Protein: LpxI family protein
Organism: Rhodobacter lacus
Amino acid sequence: MRSTALIAGAGALPRLLIEAAPEMLVCQLEGGAALSASEVLRFRIERLVPFFDALAERGITRVCMAGAMQRPRLEPELFDARTAALVPRLVGAMQAGDDATLRAVIGLFEEFDFEVIGADAICPDLVPGAGVLCGMPGPEDERDALRAAEIVAALGAVDVGQGAVVARGLCLAVEALPGTDAMLDFVAEHRALVGALLAAPKAGVFFKAPKPGQDRRIDLPALGPRTVAKAAAAGLAGIVFEAGGVLLLDRDQTVQAAEAAGIFLWGHNR
Amino acid sequence: MRSTALIAGAGALPRLLIEAAPEMLVCQLEGGAALSASEVLRFRIERLVPFFDALAERGITRVCMAGAMQRPRLEPELFDARTAALVPRLVGAMQAGDDATLRAVIGLFEEFDFEVIGADAICPDLVPGAGVLCGMPGPEDERDALRAAEIVAALGAVDVGQGAVVARGLCLAVEALPGTDAMLDFVAEHRALVGALLAAPKAGVFFKAPKPGQDRRIDLPALGPRTVAKAAAAGLAGIVFEAGGVLLLDRDQTVQAAEAAGIFLWGHNR
């Protein structure tokens, strides 16, 4: 991984990747809180092309973007001429939304001959494949998972959400802007509504997947111990995620939490 | 309306229709709370065909189904032979869900030569058409309404919800089993999340429409003063409903409540 640069944003993911491959070159946007890496190369969007040159000079051939990055304000006086020539493309992408911005940034790295890799190429454990990690999902859980997957796919087509909760075929909630935790809290609050329909003490699944057509190398949705706690509090039987499509942060801790709460974790192949 | 029978379930709608056309024959499933109509003809699902005969004998040619009906338990010993012959169809439809049950019941009425009409045929004011009932929606509200309509249409295709909340293009919530009130409470709770993105004190619309392909003669979604209060508490600019697709119960009171809260009510043609 000596030839790999980590473009590190905020959150737990960059730290986990640095632990897995400490020999990577860590790069951060100027202005962000410094990571505890041996050396951090700071860069600015206004001088992106010189940054690409600096990476190439150090023998970097692959880059991995990880963690949330805020859109920086651009200072016109800092641009070099080659980066300035890229501005129309960058600004257009930024105005078209987060996904477009990320696709544009990936495209730029690739134009400058860097290979863009996902977090799973550095630490495969972070992105579990197909299989049950704990617990025992039954046929009703699988039916709920398939129904939820269908709902999430329909929503993805209109660029909404990456998750839904289905219990015995009933859609209890759909993820929107407020996010996963808010949705699971909502289910916990309204579960009594459907209690009469559900014989089992725990029923229903939370299903999580990337948006259809999303580039799997960046910005995958994440699950962790907190998600497990919220899903358990919502009375669900388990969490189903798309195999290879979701980051499982703190895997051991997440699996232990799920085992303790008696809920299953299942990587599902569509 | 002397030749019209009202098949009355629970809720405010049957009462409003009886007030609008008191000469209708009011029919109720045995077991439900009696309505204050001059005469109520009670019927049982197990004796549906004799009930059809009784309607025809009284000169009934049109029926309107209004209000929520619980699925009754069937008592095998009460069936007559002709109704018993219909059981396989009825049971199949009941197991396929609410929409299928209603379609099957409409189909039976039609087979027995009754015309099935919607509540709007009795009281047109109940189902407003296109037009702004109060307030002044702006171009941003229309964009939000179109985005929400697109989301609701995508969800309808997977048989979920009839409503969504969109503010400045952001999907704040999607209606699922817990219903409209629960969704609007959720928006009220999480609105602070997007407050920074929204300059206006009120922004966003709640959009409500029937499911795509739904028979408009039965089971239309409803709006009322309570919906207005919840939408106002959620900080929304207004409520948009599909023209001709939503019941507006207590129209005067609903419009007054919206005017008092400073939010618009808009019947929108897709």
